[in-house]
Amino acid sequence: MKDIIEDNKFVELNYKVIDKKTGDILNTVEFPLGYVHGAENSILAPEVIAELDGKEVGDLIILPIDCDQLYGPRDESLVFTDHIENVPEEFREVGMTITMENAEGKAKNFIVTRLDDKTLTVDGNNPLCGREILFKLEVLSIRDATDEEIAIGGKTDDSPDLNEILSKQ
């Protein structure tokens, strides 16, 4: 009898985040994502858990996600362009994250999205705002979770062994 995903099963998944419009892969995992199905403190959204319920090893699940529902609509007031000389050199790189504080001391991350000889543009919107994505999951393994895994909602030794990874390079 095959194991199926149900409460108190430890499940490992690979996933990809794909832009629905362009087909570009926006994110993928290097190491399998492990979680305990049905655990109160699951790292996965309830909609994802519902789709995984009853699946078996090898099953593929593709979920469309409207990022505006997750992150809110794109806010153009969070996009700023400034003269390059006003920006410290270490932040003059597209893709760089700059953390800024407002008058109340709240921190917000901005990503450098454009750079030329005279100006630099940062964007405080989540990079997925305004996009429709596909969340593609592949079920890699299913087993009974230990009591400790059930208590924490995932694997007890989640960190990969860096020495093992480096020795393979």
Keywords:
single chain, 169 residues, mainly beta, Chitinase A, domain 3, Thrombin, subunit H, 2 domains, five-stranded antiparallel beta sheet, four-stranded antiparallel beta sheet, disordered C terminus
SSE arrangement:
Blueprint: E1 9-19, E2 25-28, E3 33-36, H1 46-52, E4 60-66, H2 67-71, E5 79-83, E6 97-101, E7 107-115, E8 119-123, E9 132-144, H3 147-152, H4 162-167
Antiparallel strand pairs: 1-2, 1-3, 1-9, 4-9, 5-8, 6-7, 7-8
Quick take:
The chain has helices at residues 46-52, 67-71, 147-152, 162-167; strands at 9-19, 25-28, 33-36, 60-66, 79-83, 97-101, 107-115, 119-123, 132-144. With 169 residues, it is mainly beta.
What does this structure look like?
By secondary structure, this protein is mainly beta. It has two domains: 9-69 and 129-156, Roll (Chitinase A, domain 3); 75-123, Thrombin, subunit H (Beta Barrel), CATH 2.40.10.330. The chain has four helices and nine strands. The chain has helices spanning 46-52, 67-71, 147-152, 162-167; strands at residues 9-19, 25-28, 33-36, 60-66, 79-83, 97-101, 107-115, 119-123, 132-144.
